[in-house]
């Protein structure tokens, strides 16, 4: 699905590319190196592990739902999400294997992941809200003040609104995360040391405000 702009990215952010292939490649690597692995989730969820870091890189270190950047927020602010929640699968070893397969895993900030936990995504919403191929960017957008909004096409869709509210996509913190991302990208590319210093101070103040709101 083609969209005019992905609300998760600033103009300086790289777009997600070949996410499904990269995830499959990582799964193949895990199975090759750890042949007894059954639940892929258990290998990528461990913070500090090479597979956790490689999984994050597939998503450009950004939450697949809101676009928050791992690096601007603390390490513990990100988790591995089950796109189709675990409650949708049988409470058996086979069910956990299916829930924890690579194709069902998503890089997510803690806020989005835990808010989404009680949401069961079924057809056609599993494809409509697909974060790996960018379909979700046709459902949500940024307004002029950088808030995430539901696009007009889906304003009256009850499930979309429930998803939107459960993940707190309308929160001020999501707006500040986006503004911080813009400042961070400008800071990284600025050559003038005085301007770079100002950008750094502005970013620091913005993150302090963001942390006060979320604490």
Secondary-structure map:
Layout: H1 19-33, H2 41-44, H3 50-58, E1 78-82, H4 93-99, E2 105-109, H5 110-116, H6 125-128, E3 140-142, E4 148-150, H7 158-166, H8 172-189, H9 193-214
Antiparallel strand pairs: 1-2, 3-4
Describe this entry's structure for a reader.
The protein is mainly alpha-helical and 215 residues long. Helix 1 packs antiparallel against helix 3 (50-58). The protein has one domain (19-214). The relative contact order is 0.13. The chain has nine helices and four strands. The chain has a two-stranded antiparallel sheet with strand order 1-2. The longest helix has 22 residues, at 193-214. The mean pLDDT is 94.
Query: What's the tally of helices?
Result: 9
Strand order of the largest sheet: 1-2
The best one-word shape is: globular
The end-to-end distance, rounded to whole angstroms, is 37 Å
Instruction: Report strand %.
Output: 5-15%
Strand count, sense and barrel status of the largest sheet are:
2 strands, antiparallel
- Which structural class best describes the helix and strand composition? mainly alpha
Helix content: 40-55%
Q: Mean pLDDT, as a whole number?
A: 94
Number of strands: 4
In N-to-C order, the SSE pattern is HHHEHEHHEEHHH
C-alpha Rg, in Å? 18 Å
Query: How many separate structural domains?
Result: 1
Spans with pLDDT under 50 lasting ≥5 residues? none
